[in-house]
Design goal:
The chain is of the alpha/beta class. It has helices spanning 67-75, 117-127, 132-145, 161-173, 191-208, 219-225, 253-256, 259-276; strands at residues 28-36, 42-51, 56-60, 82-87, 102-105, 179-183, 211-216, 228-233, 238-244. The protein folds into 2 domains: 10-101 and 178-292, P-loop containing nucleotide triphosphate hydrolases (Rossmann fold), CATH 3.40.50.300; 113-176, no CATH class. It is built from 8 helices and 9 strands. Strand 6, helix 5 (191-208) and strand 7 (211-216) form a beta-alpha-beta unit. Helix 2 packs across helix 3 (132-145), helix 2 packs parallel to helix 4 (161-173) and helix 6 crosses helix 8 (259-276). The chain is globular.
């Protein structure tokens, strides 16, 4: 089938049924979820969002719009003030079962500085008291997936920022998650490293058949990575638009420089500008350098 070459098409409605067309429960259903902090600050207005199995969904918006708050709700780290969430059609207590595992990668690598890389990656398995031989294989596989097989016995301080983030991703992958949540994991990295890790992340998503929810404030990162982008507006956070990125994976530098990429980025920029009451953002200009 030829990929869509016209203007960015509309995505599915922001509020969807609890089960998809195939009858399978989606990876995540968020229904009328709000979040108000104890000090009275409303972080999220009512949000309805469905994360379909196998998609790469990006939450995009300006700083302070509630992207991370919504991701933390999906991760089960906090509870909504009202509304509900379901994971694969069940409550959070069902996560961790085969086919319903989730893992999260935070903005900073959060590696233990006193432990070597393989021990950092092993941490989730150690906490679960898994079989040692199985854990050894899982750690080796995860490090190999992120290109750190030769760094297993390094200390975190001996790794670059990009390599530390790879180790953090390996720690998330070691439990073989079905749903991977990522909170601006590459935001602190230089643009060349960021673009390289973006491409590697897509390869992992495809190889592991993951469902990914990815938070970023970079319009161009969202366009490059995603199968669908949900745009959030300023506080109280709310979903204001979404589009499907109907472009085949894997994507390369030619896509970054294409008119289709530019058109999609412009539409997202305009959506954010409308929500913020201003002009389309100019700070996230297209990147012309290759990240090879």
């Amino acid at each position: 089938m030829e990929p869509h070459r016209g203007p960015p098409r509309e995505g599915p409605p922001l509020s969807r049924a609890r089960h998809d067309a195939a009858g399978e429960a989606p990876a995540v259903s968020v229904e009328h979820a709000t979040k108000t902090w104890p000090n009275g600050t409303q972080a999220l207005a009512a949000v309805d969002l469905t994360v379909r199995r196998g998609e790469f969904l990006t939450l995009l918006g300006p700083s302070g719009c509630g992207k991370s708050t919504l991701l933390h709700l999906i991760a089960g780290l906090i509870e909504p003030s009202s509304g509900s969430l379901a994971w694969w059609g069940k409550g959070f207590e069902a996560t961790g079962e085969p086919g319903r595992r989730l893992a999260m990668v935070f903005q900073a690598p959060t590696l233990m500085p006193w432990a070597r890389v393989d021990a950092n990656v092993r941490l989730p398995l150690s906490l679960a008291h898994g079989d040692t031989a199985d854990a050894d294989r899982a750690v080796a596989d995860a490090l190999s997936l992120v290109g750190l097989a030769d760094c297993a016995r390094h200390w975190p301080r001996e790794l670059s920022g990009g390599m530390q983030m790879r180790a953090s991703i390996a720690r998330a992958l070691v439990t073989h998650p079905d749903l991977l949540l990522m909170d601006e994991p590459f935001g602190a990295l230089d643009e060349f490293t960021r673009q390289r890790l973006d491409a590697e992340l897509v390869s992992l998503w495809m190889a592991r058949a993951l469902t990914i929810v990815f938070v970023t404030h970079s319009i161009h990162e969202a366009v490059f990575l995603s199968t669908r982008v949900a745009v959030m507006g300023p506080r109280p956070g709310r979903l204001i638009d979404e589009i499907a990125i109907d472009e085949p994976h894997p994507r390369d530098e030619s896509f970054r420089l294409s008119t289709r990429f530019a058109a999609t980025a412009q539409r997202l920029s305009a959506a954010i500008a409308r929500a913020c009451g201003g002009e389309p953002a100019a700070h996230d200009a297209p990147v012309r350098a290759s990240a090879s």
